[in-house]
Amino acid sequence: MEISLKELWTVIHGMVFGAVFLTAFAGGLAGLWSYRAGLITFEGAKERLQRMLLGLWAMAIMAWVTVISGTYIVYVWYRDPAKDSPRSILRANPKTIEWHSFGMEWKEHVAWVAPILATAVVFIVSYYGPRLIYHDRIRRAAIALFVIAFAAAAVAGILGAFINKVAPVR
Fold first, then answer.
1. Given 26, 72, 92, 160, which residue has the most CB atoms within 10 angstroms?
2. Per-residue pLDDT tens for 76-105?
3. What integer is the mean pLDDT of 96-117?
4. pLDDT reading at 41 higher than 90
5. What is the domain extent for residue 52?
6. How far apart are the C-alpha atoms of 100 and 97, rounded to whole Å?
7. Residue 1 scores a pLDDT above 80
8. How many domains are there within the chain?
């Protein structure tokens, strides 16, 4: 089996960077969900905060690495002006043009929501620190932002897998 450099970067972008962010989401969500008064003490919140911030920062960084590698490495090959580029292949067939017009538009634009919102969540948790256990509405807002970030990334990942199946970067 042989894999080209472009195919390798596509795998690294989606199956390494993207998958790490999506997989780690469950841990981040559980940490945020249980970070509330009644479940932990203020001292316990201080101890847990460092671990949660480390995980949230790692996830935000991974989201940025995923989107940047997709935009500035893989997407460049997708948009190659050659007749056999993935973009040309998708746009040439009426049955696959939606993969380009909807799928790639999502990946080009909406996928950027994931790292932006993940970073906002890290900022909220960093700013409030252990006091966040007493600010239930803010903690829930952070959870909502986190879920939206996950949803944007998950849809982008699913679309990317399908697009790569129909018209792979080679």
1. 160
2. 888 888 888 888 898 988 998 998 888 888
3. 90
4. no
5. 5-166
6. 5
7. no
8. 1
- Six-digit token string for 138: 């803010």
Q: How many Cβ atoms are within 10 Å of 82's Cβ, its own excluded?
A: 8
Q: Specify the higher pLDDT residue, 69 or 106.
A: 69
pLDDT band at 169 (very low <50, low <70, confident <90, very high): confident
What's the start-to-end Cα distance of the chain, in Å?
14
Q: Say if CB 110 and CB 155 are below 8 A apart.
A: yes
Coil/strand/helix, residue 37? strand
80 Rama sector, left if φ>0, alpha if ψ -120 to 50, beta otherwise: beta
Structural tokens at position 30 = 């559980």
Q: Is there a contact between 56 and 118 (Cβ–Cβ < 8 Å)?
A: yes
Q: For 18-57, b where at least 16 C-beta lie within 10 A, e where not — what string?
A: bebbbebbeebeebbeebbeeebeeeebeebbeebeeebe
Give the DSSP per-residue string, 96-154.
THHIIIIIIHHHHHGGGHHHHHHHHHHHHHHHHGGGGGG-HHHHHHHHHHHHHHHHHHH
